[in-house]
């Protein structure tokens, strides 16, 4: 049997869940915690992908000549 408990903030939802778990053998599952864990994992995965693409983009040579020679183009200083 699945029982869903809903209600306003501080209305005793968790107290009722604990009561049902202790007295009637139900398993209390906090769905919000499951969503939070999943959201944190999704954000970490997106951050990894973004960081990997930024690292890959930074390693790409700026021109075909640079790719052949393996050099990085330098910008002259305006101090002259």
In short:
The chain has 80 residues and is mainly alpha-helical. It is built from three helices and no strands.
Which percent range fits the helix content? Answer: 55-70%
Tally of DSSP β-strands: 0
SSE run:
HHH
Compute the CA-based radius of gyration. 28 Å
Q: Estimate the strand proportion.
A: under 5%
Give the overall shape, derived from the CA principal axes: rod-shaped
Low-confidence stretches: none
Largest sheet: none
Structural class: mainly alpha
Please, how many helices? 3
Distance between the termini: 81 Å
Summed over residues and divided by their number, the pLDDT gives a mean of 81
How would you describe this structure to a colleague?
- It is a single chain.
- By secondary structure, the protein is mainly alpha-helical.
- Helices cover 59% and strands 0% of the residues.
- It contains 3 helices and no strands.
- The longest helix has 29 residues.
- The chain is rod-shaped.
